[in-house]
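May I ask you to comment on the folded chain given beneath this request?
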Amino acid sequence: MLLVGLTGGIGSGKSTVASLLARRGAVVINADDLARRATLPGTAGHARVAERFGQEVLTASGTIDRGRLARRVFADEGERRDLEAIVHPEVARLLAEALEEHRDTDHIVVYDVPLLFEAGLQSMFDVIVVVSAPEQARIERLGVQRGMDADDVRARMAAQISDAKRERAADVVIRNAGSMRELEAEADAAWELLTRRAKL
């Protein structure tokens, strides 16, 4: 198994790149999906989030209102760290379970994780791929795709490390500053590199 960490700032197009790599044969595991599973009603993660942040972060049906919780924690670094202390260990456990079936295979497994560097996960990957995009393009993209206002996007960007720091620590940088065709070409080049690396 070649384990690839795929990361990038909010709105960079990381999820699109993950989809492109999946179409080329990668097994993609999404950290946000694991975080959702880790905090489903009935889980220890859900109980701890509700205890720490109160009923106001729950919907009428008892699920976590991720948008409301995100707005709260991205406005307060202490609360964000508390949330990460609850969720990250559960996500790590779920990831270990997901990776087990690929352990002794030649699969290229891509872990799509927004906070790779912030969580100090660099050492677990064979290759780190960073997706970068201009800040204004990211703000506009998130406004259209998720209905987020610019101030909310900037607050989330401020909670993440800069593209420049990510790029310096990356093995592969995919620049998402042009058309979909250009992004496809970047994904092709990255996939070729990953398949070569997997054969070593």
